[in-house]
């Protein structure tokens, strides 16, 4: 099996092959998604939400992310493993950002890192890329800035923010990012950005004009029960199936029908 690299991803944009990306936070899930042929597994800081139960992504630590990322990396043979740097690790000095990036690469087996933001963090991204670490940008709804935004609503609906997003995407390309995630922005804007840059855009809630798509795996499997944004397509009712399976197990134990003759030594 040939490993997907940042060059493979760039080649997909050039040939018009759409890029598939899903999040993963643990070994077993990563193994299944890798076998399914998902191109990029994103160890998202959304682990703070769907794994740990926090309301925002702010509390997750670099150590937490290294733990998740190393588990995912051990579960993949083909997928490119992309890992979020968590809030606070790359918004200060470029020296601190660089140190966090190097720790993640050394300790997790990640192949590339994702950082939220545009011009504000450009120098910090450059220092990381210059060290040979591939970086994916992330524009639009950047959840680490939720306290600035105030809501998880659609971004860049007004001209000023849309114009900044367009120039940020160009700046990220210029600095050497290999891709950029566009989260929750109008489809028309995402389409325009995708056409204006040579690097692939990966959308979530950003319409069909992006070069690839990403979803949080817990959401697309229906494991998160109450999260139902318009952009989400569910491919399973994992929550319902788990409740059913666990109820059946409990009933079998109570009834004394588990384990049976064949299930004991
Ligand atoms: O953390 C995450 O899951 C993400 C995706 C939604 C892009 O950043
Ligand atoms: Na994230």
From TrEMBL:
Binds 1 Mg(2+) ion per subunit. It is an enzyme of class 2 (transferase). It catalyses: (6R)-5,10-methylene-5,6,7,8-tetrahydrofolate + 3-methyl-2-oxobutanoate + H2O = 2-dehydropantoate + (6S)-5,6,7,8-tetrahydrofolate. The keyword Transmembrane helix does not apply. Its cofactor is Mg(2+). One of its GO terms (molecular function) is methyltransferase activity. Keywords: Cytoplasm, Magnesium, Metal-binding, Methyltransferase, Pantothenate biosynthesis, Transferase. Its EC number is 2.1.2.11. One of its GO terms (cellular component) is cytoplasm. The active site is at residue 183. One of its GO terms (biological process) is methylation. It is found in: Cytoplasm. Pathway: Cofactor biosynthesis; (R)-pantothenate biosynthesis; (R)-pantoate from 3-methyl-2-oxobutanoate: step 1/2. Mg(2+) binds at residues 45, 84, 116. Gene3D superfamilies: Phosphoenolpyruvate-binding domains. 3-methyl-2-oxobutanoate binds at residues 45-46, 84, 114. Belongs to the PanB family. Homodecamer; pentamer of dimers. This is 3-methyl-2-oxobutanoate hydroxymethyltransferase. It comes from Sphingobacterium deserti.
